[in-house]
Amino acid sequence: MNRLKQRIEAGEQVAAAWVELGNPDIAEIMVRHGWTTLVIDGEHGVGDLDDWVAVARAVEAAGGEVVLRVPDGSDTTLKRVLDRGFRSLIVPMVNTAAQAREIVAACRYPGLGRRGYAAPILRASDWGARPGYARDEASKELLLMLQCEHIEAVENLPEIAAVEGVDLIFIGPNDLAGSIDHLERMEDPAPQDLLRRIEAGAAAAGKPLATILGAGRGWTQLRALGYRFMVGPNDISILIAGARASAAERDNLLASAVAQY
């Protein structure tokens, strides 16, 4: 069973970080130092499917859990990442219930959907070591998050949330703001109103929410609002912050040494 899915279904609020660089060593370091749930960014980050699998192996070997944000919701993309063993997915730019139904169908084997069959020879089935994978396990262990990041998705949220097989609605606040011409102005009144509409609509539908830090909302605010899955920093930003801090420390120490002479 998917432990991350179990935690979210049990009501736990899970905090995660992004992996943008597609590097297994960096991902392992992050797990070893407190970021035990990582989201591989296949939409905007570095790498391809083989890189993502290598990162996932490093995360899992270190005792962590991994989510993949796929670059798109096509049948081919979803089939390939599922076959390669990813069980927790974020699919971007889902604006209608029809799109949501197509994505769910692409992720499920016949009887429930149209996923192509090769179960005995897949990493997903532990290379055939789980004979009941396709029949009993695949659909149950899938954790599927669909990104709401456009005004059209807000208008269609009740119908999207009602699609069976959609586990969470994932808000992309900057793209959402951009869809109403407020890119990088997420704290303006209009984008904030859209966030409140999504939160109210999801609550009415009984659908858990996920998002990133931003739009004036940090860990504390998101927890108070009841978000189940929250993604904070990324490996690039952590590296930048560390590089800047160490450079500033160096410059301060050298300036102090010069002043003493």
Q: What order do the helices and strands come in, and which of them pair?
A:
Layout: H1 3-9, E1 14-19, H2 24-32, E2 37-41, H3 49-61, E3 65-69, H4 75-83, E4 88-91, H5 97-106, H6 133-141, E5 143-148, H7 151-155, H8 157-161, E6 168-171, H9 173-178, H10 189-205, E7 209-212, H11 219-224, E8 229-234, H12 235-260
Parallel strand pairs: 1-2, 1-8, 2-3, 3-4, 4-5, 5-6, 6-7, 7-8
Main beta-sheet annotation: 8 strands, parallel, barrel
Radius of gyration equals 20 Å
Shape: globular
Distance between the termini: 65 Å
Give the class from helix and strand content and strand pairing. Answer: alpha/beta
CATH architecture: Alpha-Beta Barrel
Q: Give the low-pLDDT segments.
A: none
Supply the number of structural domains: 1
How many strand elements? 8
| CATH top-level class | Alpha Beta
Keywords: Lyase, Metal-binding
Family: Belongs to the HpcH/HpaI aldolase family.
Domain HpcH/HpaI aldolase/citrate lyase: 17-230
InterPro entries: Aldolase/citrate-lyase_domain (IPR005000), HpcH-HpaI_aldolase (IPR050251), Pyrv/PenolPyrv_kinase-like_dom (IPR015813), Pyrv_kinase-like_dom_sf (IPR040442)
